[in-house]
Amino acid sequence: MDKFSGRRSEALSPLTRHHHHALVIALNLRRAGSNETYSFNRVQQDLKEFWEEGGQDHFQQEEEILLPLFSRFASLEQDDIIRMLLQHVQIRAAVGLLLNNPEANVDIMHHLGELLADHVHLEENRVFPMIEQTIPEEELHQLTFHQGITETDRSFSHAREDRARQAQRDNSRLDSDTIEGSSTEA
Q: 0.85 exceeded by the pTM?
């Protein structure tokens, strides 16, 4: 990759694609409790699916594959790396609380949504560019990530339901317009 092109290295693209899904989850966590589509239970279920189908693997692979490689070329004792790892711990704790504690509530979801979005932006805007500038391209391209984080083409349940609900509303409007049009003609 041309270091100055502004494009993400192909080697890191599985992590970046996964970040897109993390941002969807973060947005939904921040919307939790706002309406039926973003009910606590639905958002909690989506969080559980996201976490079990790649979220925890994502952190593990950054910590066990990406950062050890980075440490061969630069010190890990950098503010952005330390902040990234601290956020990993905070996110894991909040996810654990939301998925395992009956006292969990939408305030915790909102907090996790902010934290997750902030974390993705930190990695995409600061950590990954630093890694791309530090690790030689030939070393970076030897990275391989587990299947879990590369399978990111799924939709989450509330998004599917949201689209179905909107289609139903659109059809209802068309039906009522048709009924009103035929009753005024009679």
A: no
